[in-house]
Amino acid sequence: MNNAKLLNVGFGNIVIANRVIAIVSPDSAPVKRLIQEAKTNKNAIDATCGRRTRAVIVTDSDHVILSAIQPETLANRMLSKEIAGLSANEDD
Questions:
Q1: Are 63 and 45 in contact (CB under 8 A)?
Q2: What is the DSSP letter of 89?
Q3: Parallel, antiparallel, or unpaired for β 44-46 and 64-67?
Q4: Where on the phi/psi map is residue 53: left (φ > 0), alpha (ψ -120 to 50), or beta?
């Protein structure tokens, strides 16, 4: 866990970036069903702090995390962390 990269999903909530499988928009019917199933199975984590859900993060443990941050913003945050991680490893 030393090299775990963290992803800020908004309002002080953080997810381990290596566990993220997908970041999708919540607008389509299949994603809405995915959210409902996760809530039913108690695998949904609401990190919106009462705001509108703008991104749905699916993890490798079948958890569904709801975020108020746009999917593009989250993807850019993950990408910048990967680039920073590559730069740090090249110095070794």
A1: yes
A2: H
A3: parallel
A4: beta
Distance CA 84, CA 15 (A): 17
User: Kind and range of the H or E element at 24?
Assistant: strand 20-24
pLDDT tens per residue, range 34-63: 999 999 999 999 999 999 999 999 999 999
- Distance CA(38)–CA(90), nearest Å, equals 40
Which residue from 63, 60, 47 is spatially nearest to 13, judged by alpha carbons? 47
In sequence order, the 6+-apart residues with CB closer than 8 A to the CB of 56 are 23, 24, 25, 26, 31, 34, 35, 64, 65, 66, 67
Distance CA 48, CA 86 (A): 30
DSSP per-residue letters across 26-69: TTSHHHHHHHHHHHHTT-EEE-STTSPP-EEEEETTS-EEEESS
